[in-house]
Amino acid sequence: MLSKISISDTIDFERLTAMLKIQNLTATVDDGNKTIIKDLSLTVPAGEVHAIMGPNGAGKSTLSYVLTGRDGYDVTDGSVTLDGEDLLEMEPEERAAAGLFLSFQYPLEIPGVPTLTFLRTAMNAQRKARGEDEVSAPDFMKRAREIAKSLKIAPEMLRRPLNVGFSGGEKKRMEIFQMMMLEPSFLVMDETDSGLDVDALRIVADGVNALRAPDRGMLIITHYQRLLDYIVPDQVHVLAGGKIAASGEADFAKTLEKEGYDAYV
């Protein structure tokens, strides 16, 4: 016989299943002179992939920067929690250690720092922050070789300085490589499809889909529906005017591609 579920039980269930929960978020740039995000609310449950689409200047990249704690983006109202923890109270490195990962629209180049050195340092810093043992060099290299092969990343690329001299597609594949190595609990992908040809898009999408898991959430920010043919989302949201203006299931992206965003601006 089923027992009755109280209101408090429902609230607790929502808290436990809402991996990322944004409530009434408002954020500014230019030392508070320009408001980009305005009273935005969004919930991404564990195990789900949500996509955000919208016109230029809607605040899509700003949202990703606010979530990851980039300097110059100030929250003036609202809250953000990740697994029930206050994300806005954490420093950027603490957010990373808590499992948050941002795939940049324009990945940074770091001259003089080999890719594998950078990644193993980052991985062990996160493990230390979580109270875990460092990964050994042999285990790290074994995993790096396996993942690089699956993404068709040549071994010599891993020995080069991070992203230096890489093409746009190579940089995006390197972002997915880092993502698969670090195994974060929540992924934010900002324009991951930017600059990718069809073959590179398939490889990147395969890497992202391999990370789908019941205990991992994803937020994909994109202008175009084509990425969502390869990474099928559970929900699609329109970001316009700094807030979520509409939401729907995966096919909603095709409607937006066809009709545009005029109805929501």
Automatic annotation (TrEMBL):
This is ABC transporter ATP-binding protein. The keyword Metal-binding does not apply. NCBIfam families: sufC. Residues 20-265 form the ABC transporter domain. CDD domains: ABC_FeS_Assembly (cd03217). The keyword 4Fe-4S does not apply. Gene3D superfamilies: P-loop containing nucleotide triphosphate hydrolases (3.40.50.300). One of its GO terms (molecular function) is ATP binding. It comes from Algimonas ampicilliniresistens. Belongs to the ABC transporter superfamily. Ycf16 family. It comes from the Bacteria. Keywords: ATP-binding, Nucleotide-binding.
